[in-house]
Amino acid sequence: MAHIYSFAPIAERNAEILILGSMPGCASLTAGQYYAHAQNAFWRIISELLQLDPASPYEVRVQALKSARIALWDVLRSCKREGSLDSMIEADTQTANDFRTFFRTHPQITHVFFNGAKAEACFRQHVLHGIDGRTTRCYTRLPSTSPANASLSYARKLEAWRTILLPGQSRSALAGLLQSRL
Fold first, then answer.
1. Per the domain annotation, does 110 fall within a domain?
2. Potential cystine with 69: which of 10, 16, 40, 97 (Cβ 3.0-4.6 Å)?
3. Which domain holds residue 117?
4. Catalytic amino acids?
5. What is the CATH number of the domain that holds 160?
């Protein structure tokens, strides 16, 4: 099994929100695009939130994220994994991306959202202890947009993901409320 590598972040210097996945799946790695699996709800949700045609070309969707001051990246820089499922990532092969440098060059990021439990777990295990604790950032796990997360309907996922568009204080309060309901 070969090592797989994530993509560079999608981020403007003025980004205020960071959405983190764990590692791109096979379809994404093949396409060279974040969330390329046709059944992944990420771009459908983002398109609805940003009032964008979900059939827009990838470059248009990426630009919409940047315009909304939303950055997109993965927690892991590399790992070994059979297939696309997060549960198949080999724990002892995980290497995290350089978040210390990322947060230093994107100081306006005040809220980090995790696309699912695996992204949050990897971040807490490999990253959180090594970043500057003097900054105030909120961290919120959202339901995974992966088709493997079939326990939640699209409507419930969309409801939870709406928190990324709220103003900072409201976003933090609602994210905590939604977290307790998931």
1. yes
2. 16
3. 3-174
4. 40
5. 3.40.470.10
Answer positive or negative: Cα dihedral of 116, 133, 98, 70. positive
15 lies in some domain: yes
Inside any domain, residue 181? no
Instruction: Specify the pairing of strand 76-80 against strand 138-142.
Output: unpaired
Question: What are 110-169's pLDDT values in tens digits?
Answer: 999 999 999 999 899 889 876 766 567 899 999 999 988 888 999 999 999 999 987 654
Is 29 in contact with 93 (CB distance < 8 Å)? no
Query: What's the maximum distance between 2 C-alpha atoms anywhere in the chain?
Result: 44
Give the full edge-to-edge strand order of the sheet including 138-142: 70-74, 17-21, 111-115, 138-142
* Dist CA 59 CA 70 (whole Å): 14
pLDDT digits (tens, 9 = 90+) for 42-92: 999 999 999 999 899 999 999 999 999 999 999 999 777 776 665 566 678
40 neighbors 115 (Cβ within 8 angstroms): no
With respect to residue 68, please indicate whether it lies within any of the assigned structural domains: yes
> Are the C-beta atoms of 10 and 66 separated by less than 8 Å?
yes
Give the count of domains, the chain.
1
CA angle 170, 18, 78 (to 5 degrees): 150
Answer yes or no: are the C-beta atoms of 46 and 52 closer than 8 Å: yes
